[in-house]
Design brief:
By secondary structure, the chain is of the alpha+beta class. The chain is built from three helices and four strands, in the order αααββββ.
Length: 109
């Protein structure tokens, strides 16, 4: 009986609970900014397919620590000698996020 409750609870959890964090994971570090950005773009595209409500995009990004700004969200992760910047950009049309893209880079000493 207890197992049934655990299974039911697991089925009721939102799928985002098991989603890989957008900026961490096996591809958060790589040999070049371009390779990391490509992996980041793939995760963001999978998390937010075309037609995702903007409210869902901003809620998930806020949960992951991003600051929501006008048309994009950003998070900085300090690492010596660079501050790494992760951005998710979008165009909002009728409450839907379209043209979602990413930028990943760094500001270095």
């Amino acid at each position: 009986m207890r197992l049934n409750r655990v299974i039911l609870f697991a089925l009721l959890l939102p799928t985002a609970a098991w989603a890989e964090p957008l900026i961490s994971g096996p591809s958060a570090e790589g040999p070049t900014f371009e390779s990391v950005e490509e992996a980041f773009r793939a995760r963001v595209t999978e998390a937010f397919p075309e037609g995702t409500p903007l409210a869902d995009v901003t809620a998930r990004l806020t949960d992951e620590g991003f600051t929501i700004l006008d048309g994009y969200a950003e998070i900085e992760t300090p690492r010596f000698p660079c501050d790494i910047i992760w951005r998710v950009l979008w165009v909002e049309k009728d409450g839907i996020a379209t043209g979602i893209d990413v930028v990943h880079g760094g500001i270095c000493l």
